[in-house]
Inverse folding.
């Protein structure tokens, strides 16, 4: 089928299911609206079916209900018995453990999918990938002789070699140590933007999802619970299960105004926050604040005897008891959640609509770059 | 020493190994990766020569090749000669007799190739056949080598099946093990001892060579 026949539909439309006998049903149900650069994150706890959903897209699992359409072509259609094998899907797949071919060199791995090219063109393409992924000097090494970060780059390069129309990444950074993960997130997003390829990425790491993703697909027990723009999903989880999976934090978009002496000033909605500069920030960030870290005081005056850098005038919009704690929803120019003890709530006599002051230390404001 | 018998045995073992390799690669691939429910049946049939007395196998082969069987009649119609007590009949018998010695190391090696590598190859556009040639076979070289060596050595030493199917025709079906048996029957111990020592030496060398090549394999392994 021609691409333009489907010009009005989404670029990728997955609505497929896989049943396991005596086990769960896993669904891949989401869309990528447009071609070009965008990262769709499949997010959820381990065992939620993220990887299976990705494998359905890759054609490594056969869907037994529903269909998958990409760029006007039907990749999979259960009732019509259509199942295009992975070889026919024009995709780049980065499996979780990288699956580099141990008997081939770095150059051999990068060039593996380029058998259709003549030797000259293949060498040229391998050279491009070596430059793009900073693998110079490693061409003749074998995977066993590479560090984790180098292996990750080779696997990514191999997946990109054939210039695929869709890139599938399964936990691309989880095999690396923490500092490398944080460093590589930015590099990975920059790279994907340069390549202008739609990408579906699986992760269970919230910071990774926030930094890399444009769209979020929240999965739990094989089901897609919610799917949409990443900020929208964090702002308005459709049900408590999604909120639980996303975590207790307030997550809002902010913009860096200044960084002075290791302290960042961030404009968030109508408010201004101070946070420790984690380094490597661009202009756009996600601001994450845990409910436990937000204290509430009566009166909105400027405090003096406290080390807390952030004192925000706020209005209480809701009070929800949660066991021995109370979840206070605040409006301080952006929505903020605070978790306090029931006793503290009674002692202060807090009720809905009260004007209070939300207090949080700069160290409790976590910044995740999102450019 | 009966050099004619030694030459015949080596030639038979080499041909058997080649035929088994050609048959064994696709069959072992199927055994390693098929999800058919009746796969266990094929596995059992392939393993039969391991437990069956060679005379029993030889007896059935003789019946199957005889001039009254369909196979025997078809062979006679095609080539104008009978299968039993011929080199060709011996080759067919040897292939069946050594089948598990080729199939089992191959299937075990194929099955131990990381599934993720095979899938990575598919996602890079390579067909199943090309994935086999470029990923599975190179990573299974140790298992392939084991299958080749075992098939060769096992055919070299076979006795019961040869006696049943091949008889004892010098230059056509008299193998080295039959020659030793004949020499012992004739109380001719000196040539029997020399031939036996030769077989012992060849077997030891071949196996030593195989183990030496495989000594850097990470997994501890068994021959079959």
């Amino acid at each position: 089928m021609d691409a333009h026949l489907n010009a009005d539909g989404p670029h990728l439309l997955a609505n497929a299911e896989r049943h396991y006998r005596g086990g769960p049903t896993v669904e891949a149900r989401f869309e990528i609206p447009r071609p070009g650069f965008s990262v769709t994150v499949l997010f959820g706890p381990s065992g939620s079916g993220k990887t299976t959903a990705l494998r359905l897209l890759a054609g490594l699992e056969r869907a037994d209900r529903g269909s998958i359409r990409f760029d006007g072509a039907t990749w999979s259609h259960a009732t019509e018995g259509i199942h295009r094998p992975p070889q026919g899907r024009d995709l780049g797949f980065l499996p979780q453990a990288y699956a580099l071919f141990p008997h081939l060199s770095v150059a051999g791995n990068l060039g593996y999918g380029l058998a259709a090219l003549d030797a000259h063109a293949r060498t040229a393409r391998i050279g491009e990938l070596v430059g793009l992924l900073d693998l110079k000097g490693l061409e003749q090494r074998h995977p066993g002789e590479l560090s984790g970060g180098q292996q990750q780059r080779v696997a990514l390069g191999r997946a990109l070699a054939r210039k695929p129309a869709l890139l599938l990444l399964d936990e691309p950074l989880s095999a690396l140590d923490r500092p490398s993960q944080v460093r590589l997130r930015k590099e990975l997003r920059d790279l994907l933007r340069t390549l202008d390829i739609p990408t579906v990425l699986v992760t269970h790491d919230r910071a990774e999802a926030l930094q890399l993703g444009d769209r979020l697909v929240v999965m739990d027990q094989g089901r897609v619970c919610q799917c949409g723009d990443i900020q929208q999903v964090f702002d308005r989880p459709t049900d408590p299960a999604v909120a639980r999976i996303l975590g207790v934090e307030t997550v809002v978009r902010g913009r860096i105004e200044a960084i002075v002496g290791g302290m960042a000033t961030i404009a968030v909605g109508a408010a201004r926050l101070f946070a420790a500069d984690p380094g490597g920030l661009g202009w756009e960030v996600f601001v994450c604040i845990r409910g436990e870290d937000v204290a509430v005081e009566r009166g909105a005056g400027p405090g003096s005897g406290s080390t807390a850098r952030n004192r925000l005038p706020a209005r209480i919009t809701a009070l929800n008891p949660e066991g021995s704690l109370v979840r206070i929803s605040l409006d301080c120019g952006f929505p903020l959640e605070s978790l306090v003890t029931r006793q503290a709530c009674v002692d202060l006599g807090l009720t809905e609509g009260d004007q209070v002051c939300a207090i949080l230390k700069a160290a409790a404001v976590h910044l995740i770059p999102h450019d | 020493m009966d050099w004619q018998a030694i030459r015949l045995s080596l030639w038979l073992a080499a041909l058997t190994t080649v035929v088994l390799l050609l048959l064994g690669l696709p069959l072992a691939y199927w055994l390693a990766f098929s999800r058919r429910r009746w796969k266990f049946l094929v596995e059992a049939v392939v393993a039969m020569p391991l437990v069956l007395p060679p005379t029993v196998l030889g007896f059935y082969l003789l019946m199957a090749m005889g001039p009254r069987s369909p196979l025997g009649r078809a062979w006679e119609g095609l080539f104008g000669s009978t299968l039993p007590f011929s080199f060709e009949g011996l080759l067919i018998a040897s292939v069946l007799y050594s089948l598990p010695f080729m199939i089992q190391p191959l299937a075990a090696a194929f099955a131990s190739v990381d599934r993720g590598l095979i899938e990575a190859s598919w996602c890079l556009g390579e067909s199943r056949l090309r994935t086999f040639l470029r990923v599975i076979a190179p990573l299974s070289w140790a298992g392939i080598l084991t299958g080749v060596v075992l098939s060769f050595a096992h055919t070299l030493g076979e006795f019961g099946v040869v006696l049943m199917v091949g008889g004892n025709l010098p230059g056509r079906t008299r193998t080295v093990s039959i020659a030793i048996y004949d020499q012992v029957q004739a109380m001719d111990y000196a040539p029997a001892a020399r031939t036996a020592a030769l077989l012992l030496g060849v077997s030891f060398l071949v196996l030593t060579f195989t183990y030496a090549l495989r000594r850097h394999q990470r997994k501890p392994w068994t021959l079959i």
Q: What stands out?
A: Chain B has one domain: 3-35+49-214. The two ends of chain B are 32 Å apart (CA to CA). The first helix of chain B runs from residue 3 to 33.
